[in-house]
Amino acid sequence: MPRTDCIMRHLPYFCRGQVVRGFGRGSKQLGIPTANFPEQVVDNLPADISTGIYYGWASVGSGDVHKMVVSIGWNPYYKNTKKSMETHIMHTFKEDFYGEILNVAIVGYLRPEKNFDSLESLISAIQGDIEEAKKQLDLPEHLKVKEDNFFQVSKSKIMNGH
Ligand SMILES: Cc1cc2nc3c(=O)[nH]c(=O)nc-3n(C[C@H](O)[C@H](O)[C@H](O)COP(=O)(O)O)c2cc1C
Ligand SMILES: Nc1ncnc2c1ncn2[C@@H]1O[C@H](COP(=O)(O)OP(=O)(O)O)[C@@H](O)[C@H]1O
Ligand SMILES: [Mg+2]
């Protein structure tokens, strides 16, 4: 079982990285696209940050900051052999953003990763996570992270030059 005090010690956790291709299941099978981070970003996570489902804030390149949910782990339903970190942003984008920089601030923990008997139950669990995250993120302590300098830096010229 994840030790909540261990997890919370690292939050908020900020990171950025280029969006890479995963297995293409997020949008095609689940109807919930997830922007996947490269292995390097996953390897740089603090060793004692538990796998599981988290929520927070995200922006793409120098774009607006949106609510997000992120899954860190091996996706037991799919039995992945590599640990992944995948972010679903609660926003409708006009097009895919592979290759762009994704900026992420994780602020809270929702639950451990689970296996499910059916795709339908995986999808409804994820939809439940999204609803819970939306509620939690309206709390003042979480809303303030949206304004963090971390996201301001991503809007600066330095980042736009890439
Ligand atoms: C909020 C959220 C919760 C998730 N929870 C689980 C889970 O409990 N078990 C699991 O096997 N996968 C879970 N996933 C991961 C999905 O299985 C994953 O997004 C899907 O396999 C897409 O993978 P892909 O990006 O490689 O295509 C979750 C994803 C999100 C965004
Ligand atoms: N709201 C969104 N949240 C996350 N990714 C999105 C969103 N809208 C579009 N995308 C795009 O969808 C891609 C993820 O789709 P997905 O089916 O999970 O494929 P993959 O397996 O390649 O990660 C992201 O890399 C991004 O380019
Ligand atoms: Mg994905």
Automatic annotation (TrEMBL):
**Which Gene Ontology terms describe the biological processes this protein takes part in?**
apoptotic process; flavin adenine dinucleotide biosynthetic process; FMN biosynthetic process; reactive oxygen species metabolic process; riboflavin biosynthetic process; riboflavin metabolic process
EC number, UniProt record: 2.7.1.26
Q: Which gene encodes it?
A: RFK
Q: Which UniProt keywords apply?
A: ATP-binding, Flavoprotein, FMN, Kinase, Metal-binding, Nucleotide-binding, Transferase, Zinc
This entry carries the following GO cellular component terms, namely: cytosol; mitochondrion
Q: Which organism is it from?
A: Macaca mulatta (Rhesus macaque)
Q: Which InterPro entries does the UniProt entry name for this protein?
A: Riboflavin_kinase (IPR023468), Riboflavin_kinase_bac/euk (IPR015865), Riboflavin_kinase_dom_sf (IPR023465)
- Pathway recorded for this protein: Cofactor biosynthesis; FMN biosynthesis; FMN from riboflavin (ATP route): step 1/1
Specify whether Nucleotide-binding is a keyword of the entry: yes
Protein name, please?
Answer: Riboflavin kinase
